[in-house]
Design goal:
With 270 residues, this protein is α+β, with helices and mostly antiparallel strands. Helix content is 54%, strand content 19%. The longest helix has 34 residues, at 180-213.
């Protein structure tokens, strides 16, 4: 049993070259009572790189055997694969059913047949890859892959800090800041949440310690004078920006967010 790979020419070029550009898209989202926000996504340009090589490779398995004292031959066409498909796909993706058929008819293991084919195919693939790596298409393809990888990493880190889906309201795929005002809102919101968490922890600690000691006033006190003037100015700015965001007329809720902000303002001693 052996493998034969025959190079033939197809009539039409491969139309599925790498797209030449990544393009930023803009989509507006908004709920009733809120100002719509723009989400910055991405798509690919319509223009593609040309793929002028017309080579294709017809892969077949040949088998000789004896039957009633006579030598007989049989062959199976596994797949015809184009020049460019050889560097983008594996036979495991596109020839599985053909390989299985030959394995069943010859009592051979599928892995044996794959090894038989790739022994002949690997040198061809290596040659094609070396040629393709010299093209402008390959260079652009690698640049696009690097852009997407960096984008996903930065997006994940940002959303871990500010919330799911928020990165695209601030930045585009190239890392360009598109909405600095909204980024500042996120920072203020995060500070408010952190301050609320800190205060809640302090109050919880105070209550628990009071229950344990029987006299909280002897061991723990909270004073609005804990902040100096510079810190109060910063807190006042946080309150001002957050109140615009969470006013019932702006966010359309029942006023609970604004009530919380007012409570925090009192606790801050503003």
């Amino acid at each position: 049993m052996f493998c034969v790979i025959q190079k033939v020419q197809k009539k039409k070029p491969d139309p599925y070259g790498t797209r030449k550009e990544i393009i930023v898209t803009e989509t507006k989202f908004g709920f009733i009572g809120e100002e719509p926000k723009t989400s910055y996504g991405y798509t690919y340009s319509n223009g593609r790189f040309e793929r002028p090589v017309l080579d294709t490779y017809k892969i077949s398995i040949h088998h000789s055997y004896r039957e009633n004292g006579k030598v007989k031959k049989k062959q199976w066409v596994i797949r015809t694969v184009s020049y460019y498909d050889l560097i983008e796909y594996s036979l495991y993706d596109c020839a599985d059913s053909s390989i299985r058929k030959v394995a069943n008819e010859t009592d051979k293991e599928e892995d044996f047949l794959y090894d038989l084919i790739y022994e002949k195919l690997n040198p061809i693939i290596e040659k094609i890859e070396a040629e393709f790596h010299q093209t402008e298409e390959y260079k652009v393809k690698r640049e696009q892959e690097a852009i997407l990888m960096a984008y996903r990493e930065v997006e994940a880190a940002f959303e871990k800090e500010y919330g799911q889906g928020e990165y695209r309201y601030c930045y585009d795929i190239f890392g360009t800041l598109r909405n600095p005002a909204y980024l500042e809102e996120l920072k203020v919101k995060k500070k408010v949440q952190e301050e609320y968490t800190r205060r809640s922890y302090e109050e919880s600690y105070k209550r628990n310690y009071s229950n344990y000691s029987g006299d909280s006033s002897s061991y723990y006190t909270t004073s609005q004078s804990n902040y100096n003037e510079d810190e109060k100015k910063m807190l006042h700015e946080i309150y001002r920006m957050a109140s615009k965001k969470f006013h019932p007329d702006a966010c359309g809720d029942d006023g609970s967010k604004m009530k919380l902000l007012t409570k925090l303002k009192d606790q801050w001693g503003l």
